[in-house]
Amino acid sequence: MSSVSNRRSVMTLFTLPDCADCHRVRIVLAEKDITVDIIEIDPDNKPEDLAELNPYNTAPTLIDRDLVLYDARVIMEYLDERFPHPPLMPVDPVTRAHSRLALYRIEKDWYSLLRDMDSDDQAKADEARRILRSGVLSAVDVFSIKPYFLSSEFSLVDCTIAPVLWRLPKYGIDLPATDVKPLMRYMDRVFSREMFQFSLTEAEKAIRP
């Protein structure tokens, strides 16, 4: 494994064209303006390098010289510590802990549903779609508290929320025309960020043409 990674002198990210976990890593890379070789892979024809580097043969996978990481949150936190400016996590340990708890809940409550919606089991996908829509709507008031998710500054939590909200049309999840203004303002604020737009693949751009 080290022999493969040592051949790469520039940081490399293996990513899928339409994957929320990959997307949130790409947002972090863009926000921090990190020089990286992004390799967009075919999920049905993955490169041999990936299997050598990552025992799970999954994306995202990040290679930074002799370091190989293959969990989205681990990658994001590593990048935030390795490239501290601009910071995407609070310095205060209590606030940082709250942010990590928010990340955990989003992954557990929302990201797991994305996987279910991609399932061939239609009943399972429909139920996941219903639960996600309900979960997003129940969080509307939270988005009115601060410009970003419970924060005045853009953070790893926003990097994680944004790919889910961007994909709502893909999964046929519509939002009501009324009573969601704080959420719509949040989405506009995040989606209009230059680095968010830069992070999108062609497949992701097609979700909201």
From TrEMBL:
Q: Which residues form the GST C-terminal domain?
A: 92-209
Give a single Pfam family match.
GST_C
SUPFAM superfamilies cross-referenced by the UniProt entry: GST C-terminal domain-like, Thioredoxin-like
* Domain of life (superkingdom): Bacteria
Q: Which GO terms describe its cellular component?
A: cytoplasm
GST N-terminal domain ranges (all copies): 9-87
User: Which InterPro entries did the record assign?
Assistant: Glutathione-S-Trfase_C-like, Glutathione-S-Trfase_C_sf, Glutathione_S-Trfase, Glutathione_S-Trfase_N, GST_C, GST_Omega/HSP26, SspA_N, Thioredoxin-like_sf
Q: Which family does it belong to?
A: Belongs to the GST superfamily. HSP26 family.
Please state what the protein is called. Stringent starvation protein A
